[in-house]
Amino acid sequence: MVHPEIEKRKTxxxxxxxxxxxxxxxxxxxxxxxxxxxxxxxxRNKANQSSTSDFMEIEKQRGISVATSVMGxxxxxxxxxILDTPGHKxxxxxxxxxxxxxxxxxxxxxxxxxxxxxxxxxxxxxxxxNTPVIIFVNKLDREGKDTFDLLDExxxxxxxxxxxxxxxxxxGHNFKGVYNIFDKQLNLFKPDKSKITxxxxxxxxxxxxxxxxxxxxxxxxxxxxxxxxxxxxxxKLDNDLYLEGLLAPVFFGSAINNFGIRELLDxxxxxxxxxxSREANERMVMANxxxxxxxxxxxxxxxxxxxxxxxxxLRICSGKFERNKFYYHTRLNKKLKFxxxxxxxxxxxxxxxxxxxxxxxGLYDSGNFKIGDTLTEGEELQFKGIPxxxxxxxxxxxxxxxxxxKQLEKGLQQLTEEGVAQLFVQQPGNRKIIGTVGELxxxxxxxxxxxEYGAKCAFRPLTFRKSSxxxxxxxxxxxxxxQRRHHHIATDxxxxxxFLADNDWTLNLAKRDFPxxxxxxxxxxx
Length: 526
Ligand code: GDP
Fold this sequence. Notes:
Layout: H1 4-7, E1 9-16, H2 22-32, H3 52-64, E2 70-75, E3 78-83, H4 92-99, E4 104-110, H5 117-128, E5 133-138, H6 147-158, E6 161-164, E7 166-169, E8 177-180, E9 185-188, E10 200-202, H7 211-214, H8 217-234, H9 239-243, E11 247-252, H10 261-271, E12 277-279, E13 284-286, E14 293-301, E15 310-318, E16 321-322, E17 326-329, E18 334-337, E19 342-345, E20 348-351, E21 354-355, E22 360-365, E23 374-376, E24 393-399, H11 405-417, E25 422-426, E26 431-436, H12 440-453, E27 457-461, E28 466-471, H13 475-484, E29 489-491, E30 497-501, H14 504-513, E31 518-520
Parallel strand pairs: 1-3, 1-4, 4-5, 5-11, 6-11
Antiparallel strand pairs: 2-3, 7-8, 8-9, 9-10, 12-13, 14-15, 14-23, 15-22, 16-21, 17-18, 17-23, 19-20, 24-26, 24-27, 25-26, 28-30, 28-31, 29-30
Helix pairs in contact: 11-12
Bound molecules: guanosine-5'-diphosphate (GDP).
């Protein structure tokens, strides 16, 4: 028997390529859930502006009102937790880590642009963990791609089977609405940004004469033909395949016009998984175990210099989390208790007395936590699933104020613990290399080192483009590659050896020359 508090929780993230409509959809969900009353409440945490100061301003606001990182609300008797992910691609690592803390995702795709680069990368991460995915094709009020072509594109580029649960009638200026295949309903489209209901016409089947009252004969014929084909090609939704992450139900709509949202939300609530089990190095941990366990997937620095504390975001995996109870920090081998844990409902954060699997609580932290840390009631356990991915840009740190070396060291360590970037060290000389997925992070690091730690640094570009984590059955092989390729070798934050390659060619050459060494593209490989 699963505890009802666990059963009612649905913890997920909405992901998309920037501008596909993630923020709009999040906001509409909160409106439907009654968590907010007006549009415009959800902050667009985007930094598409090129200036760092703009970005820092946004981060500052976010740092202070961390509430937007998790948005919880009740809907149809369920507790929904939406985990926010940054839109800017330079912060993709943060998104990847957040994906380790959810039980499913909704992927938003722009009907005009189709599958974009960022969509593909995010899906790759979902595939690594078999996270169940529902796809929402947005912006049907615009002239987009042909629906069948779009479904093909989703299948081919995202490497997942799809199953449409609704079907659009026309698009752009001629967008009439969608036919809900499962419920046999015609939902008529009326552009309206303020209302949250849409006219729904219930029919018996596609031959129902009622349909011809609302659709032109040509529209009806196209719909009937399309759906005959859909039935033949895609069939019915297989729930098990969805839960295994192999099949994605697809919905169509227009987030800005509140169209298709209720349908999406209702289906999500009925089919999305509640917390189940999670893999630790030692064993599988089931959500309904009695003892509490959880892990930190995100650390949010408070950029306000008057409040230097950080908030560690803890995903609860099993048992019940309680305020003021001692928990065991497995990495530090230390007991900690939390007197002010917070939880997040819509845009407010409030003190939490207890929390359940699927919930995310914010723990005020003065430096105890690193991303990936596990808390238990005493058991030695380390949750898996927060890998580091290879950065794409590597730069060497140059200390610009020798009197502040200590501050620089501390700042770099803390910022990399927060997951802002990855730190590698190269010998001889303890050269510090910072790896990121975007230029913006270097500016953020320079700014934060100066403002929070009083340290000055600059970055010298390196030619490396890729890191691979090295393992071998025999340590001798690792020592050999370290000796013979020392220009390319560094250690990561945990002291593991890493091969830094300029391009695929150098990487392949090294693989050929050291056949007994395994090269891994993420830091998690067991
Ligand atoms: P995000 O970057 O994925 O969070 O995207 P946003 O939610 O900020 O949306 C990006 C832009 O697309 C904004 O200007 C929205 O107003 C617009 N948008 C969102 N949904 C729709 C839609 O259904 N139709 C149209 N035409 N525009 C939309």
